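2024-03-11 09:14:02 INFO receiving multi-entity request
2024-03-11 09:14:02 INFO entity count = four
2024-03-11 09:14:03 INFO echoing inputs for audit
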Amino acid sequence: MRRMTARPGNAHQARLLTLLRDGGPNSRAQLGDQVDLSRSKLAVEVERLLETGLVVADGLAASRGGRRSHNIRLAPALRFLGVDIGATSIDVAVTNAELEVLGHINQPMDVREGPVAVFEQVLSMAAKLKASGLAEGFDGAGIGVPGPVRFPEGVPVAPPIMPGWDGFPVREALSQDLGCPVMVDNDVNLMAMGEQHAGVARSVGDFLCVKIGTGIGCGIVVGGEVYRGTTGSAGDIGHIQAVPDGRPCACGNRGCLEAHFSGAALARDATEAAQQGLSEELAARLEAAGALSAVDVAAAAAAGDATALDLIREGGNRTGQVIAGLVSFFNPGLVVIGGGVTGLGHTLLAAIRTQVYRQSLPLATGNLPIVLGELGPTAGVIGAARLISDHLFSPA
Amino acid sequence: MRRMTARPGNAHQARLLTLLRDGGPNSRAQLGDQVDLSRSKLAVEVERLLETGLVVADGLAASRGGRRSHNIRLAPALRFLGVDIGATSIDVAVTNAELEVLGHINQPMDVREGPVAVFEQVLSMAAKLKASGLAEGFDGAGIGVPGPVRFPEGVPVAPPIMPGWDGFPVREALSQDLGCPVMVDNDVNLMAMGEQHAGVARSVGDFLCVKIGTGIGCGIVVGGEVYRGTTGSAGDIGHIQAVPDGRPCACGNRGCLEAHFSGAALARDATEAAQQGLSEELAARLEAAGALSAVDVAAAAAAGDATALDLIREGGNRTGQVIAGLVSFFNPGLVVIGGGVTGLGHTLLAAIRTQVYRQSLPLATGNLPIVLGELGPTAGVIGAARLISDHLFSPA
DNA sequence: CGACTTCTTCCACTCAGAGGACAAAGAGTG
DNA sequence: CACTCTTTGTCCTCTGAGTGGAAGAAGTCG
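2024-03-11 09:21:47 INFO inference complete, emitting structure
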């Protein structure tokens, strides 16, 4: 089939597309209730959208007490590709125009293998999804990378954990290979957009989304929009000092949050504890697997291992201290905790909450929910799909 | 004279008013270059503004090579009142519609005397300005208070250093007394707006404005707009933990930045040092005045007193640490340091810069100026005038 | 003085959008 | 089933915002 070529011709059409995306199939009448346009105007714009093929008729709606309305919906053949490149694995998903995930695959891979190898992998994963009959082609793709991005150009800048990616024209290259429009953003920002679109952050205007994975980052949403900072490095909280004169960090400083708590730090601490004989549980796992990861710590904690729980609590305290500072500064309406370590679950959450509620002022914490992300690994890919759909559903 | 009653009738007129406010008198042709409207449309809107009296003719402009243009400007009789209520003093100023300060008076007063006493004082200061012939009345007033504000209603909420102000209807009360529209905001936000309008932050979209006075606060500007947070307490960085298990703070926690460095903390430290005989300079000043303030420390430092310099450096380090965290998080394009302690000047600035440049990542600090505010005590009142003019120059 | 620019006004024309009238299609009622 | 009432969709007219061209007014420059 011919892929999506049209774009909304004006702001009204763009608004209608987003309503259909976020609210699913809808009747003209219901749309009219939401957009504050005259019926005639609405009819004209819907007609134009139908002509472009972005929107199709979808049967009759139930009666609301009078004549039944004809439903319309976004073209069911539209497909978006959501790609979430993590430090150690890649998530790729296909969604329809309503951003529902139709297929999702995950594959371990180290970003440090460089952009060429990574994108080869991404393309083969995308091909696999296509081959399974979920899509005949892609109308757009959103890509998340684990480092700062110059957003308008879609190019990673000075990514500490991604040597070889600096300045690589991700957007352009992938747009070529996939043959569709592409947008690139920091993975944390995409997670925030995902939780905003389909997760816990619906209907919250200003919130923070802290992602604890191999590193630690924070998505910042202001007035419903992701804030990226002057150079695209906003939310880079992994290198905030959490412990004065603490551990040396890869960045050259000491005591960075990331050096004391993150997937990588946790694995290292656990290994050390196991070798020192502090925990039989962890030692057994180390023996079995040859190396420990955050997942092992989570499992050990779930099994009641005191050392593992201590590690998590300790890390949660550190993280909570930093978040407390951010809460005082930013006064968000919600804090979402997500990322690979969500498996650490409520032990971690409790530690973070304790610190934040203790250290920040009541006015800021009074009505501040601190919750785990709802979408897990799909947050990133949904956010990626959302990113490209926001782009494509805005006037050209 | 009759005060300003009209408001711009549409977004075009609002835009023209702001252009005239920020750019001074201007010809129709020059305005046309900036607004992307057809000449005819522009002429119509200007005509309407002239009818309302908000704008008046102002002679002929210089020729740009052809027929000379007729200048127009904002009504010269328009007057805004800018009020900046600090913890220990009150600033009141009158500005014209271009937000130029025509008169400015300052009077010491403790906010803790409560809103009634303070506003009595404010009104008498405003009356004094009026009596000196600078204004026949006020078309609007902006008020800054040293604590969080529920912005839409213009009401202070839970202000720690302002007992008796919680919930006081500042906006409504002053609007009654002054007989003109009033807007209320946190003093730090107003300082940020002032520096943005007429100071160092012109043409910067995203920046932080750290005010170190009796307390410490931070104005946050995102995309040219002040960000106030969910409950109006954004930027309240005085109670971020700067020293683990540090000094007890009035808020109930330990180690808050404000407890270790602020006008109040500095005065206390200096007094202590003087009493312990660590500094002859400070001891002499204590003897002479009976008490020490931040100003004394600044003077002693200027005179080369080692103890005073140490105090400033120490405080700068602490503040710099906190700011470094904020820079990593927020990735601003500029950091402005202002407030009462600007007298501490470059010693303080150097200490802050050192910390920030050392602790934050290069991508965030690479092109990040950290500078002292340019406007000193007028930043607040200019920001206040800007606040109300933004309000009045927007469509009703 | 004449040629060329720039500024301003006037006017005809286009077009988005509102809103009313009316027809179509359903629900509810006796 | 006949009737009324409601909701939906379409058509048509009207208004007002805005554009762009033409022409006059008021300059500059050689």
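2024-03-11 09:21:48 INFO post-check: The two ends of chain B are 22 Å apart (CA to CA).
2024-03-11 09:21:48 INFO post-check: Chain B touches chain A through 47 residues (CB under 8 Å).
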